Amino acid sequence: MPDNAVSRPSLRSSVRSRGRKTAVVAPALVAVCAAVAAGCGTSTSPSAPQGDPNAPLEVWTRSQDSAAKVYTRIFEEFTKKTGQKVEYKAVFNDFDKQIQQRAANKDLPDLVITDTGSLGVFTQQGLVGEVDRASLAGAADVSERAWGNARTSDGKFHAVPWSTQATVTLIRKDWREKLGKPVPATHEQLLDLAKAFTSQDPDGNGQADTYGILAPATTDRGYTLWWASNFLWQGGGDVLKDSGNGKFQVAIDSPESQRSVEWIRGLFCDSKVMNPNALTLTTNDAHPLFETGKVGIYTTGPYMFSRFDKNLGKDKYEVIPAPRGPGGDTVLGEGEDMYIMAGSPNPAGQKKLVEFMLTPEVQQMGMKVQAGETPVVRLPVNKNVDVKTVLNDPRWDTTKQVYESAGRPFPAVPNFQPFRQKTSESLNKIFTCTTDTRAELGKLAGELTKELSTQGIKQ
């Protein structure tokens, strides 16, 4: 096995330039270039460049400034220890669009760190190759559960885990205690608390300007399902059912799913405990509504603790596992992967950086942040790093327990994004209170069945 951790097919002589860099482009990448933009052809040559071990590594992360500061420290430490230069870029808006533009130009970054939702897309498009775990120093220290976030539907690995997480429920503790309500343990108690936050003036300003539940439920990137999946699963519903043989069936129109979706719809249409404009709200726009006292319950990731501690106050909110529904307390448990991108002029440098990121020291660097920063390692993938020892924060202990006992990812189909997007669009329509739930889910089931066939995984 060569020094690179990614197994690549034979290379062609199509050359790209990034500053002083020169690199080869794998055939799989050439294929996606042809699909994205015309005129991306190559010619075969036996004298393809062998790489430049001194070429800077261009690294992208899907991050805002609060997380970029943490990444910057990590990459500076890498350069200090290895002498290898890193050109770092934090991208948040239009991240996927910009990646596709770089693919069309045959000029991908060397390493991309983003959520597990990109795994199927990157693999199908040939932007990443297969990862040989055995060739990576430190790979054996990564938990098998974390490796599951990097495994594609064929059982192979096309990324390397970086961080894991599970969604938890954040509640305005001061509001709850003022109204004399218990910590919710069931959906019924959660709804009762949400109604109280909406109608009983928990902030005491004499105005009807607070709401129970906060949802960043825009259809952008399928966030409607990202948020609603927790309640869908807790109600016993699902989008797809794994048949256990690499095949799947549609489950979104099952009686359990219909019941779950109807319950969620009731939050919008009956009790009306949802924040206004929830169905067009992005996560970036949702966060301020919790920290400024507009909404009292927020299902989100643990990466928000630091920000809310600073802007709201650690004493004003509490972190609890999801209240149980008829189907249990399952929540979305996923994470971020490191994607070793095709066509790099410095494959040895790619491998060296990935191995550095897996070390206990760097995993801890990603967890420990300053006020107002966002941790870039939520739960460590390195099993030798203990959350309790590193952070000494019961909220993170809660998050770890939730991840281990109730966290689950989206189904491991070749590419879940079409399922996520189509489901989000249908749920969004239902939550407007103008669409019949059963009819819309039936229509959605037909579309998802076609997608299963397209991807060759229909039972």
TrEMBL record:
In terms of superkingdom, the source organism counts as Bacteria
Gene3D superfamilies the record matches: Periplasmic binding protein-like II
Signal peptide segment: 1-37
Q: Which Pfam families match?
A: SBP_bac_1
Keyword Nucleotidyltransferase in record: no
Q: Print the keywords alphabetically.
A: Cell membrane, Lipoprotein, Membrane, Palmitate, Signal, Sugar transport, Transport
**InterPro entries in UniProt:** Bact_solute-bd_prot1, SBP
What PANTHER family is this protein classified in?
ARABINOSE-BINDING PROTEIN-RELATED (PTHR43649), POLYGALACTURONAN_RHAMNOGALACTURONAN-BINDING PROTEIN YTCQ (PTHR43649:SF33)
Q: What name has this protein been given in UniProt?
A: ABC-type sugar transport system, periplasmic component
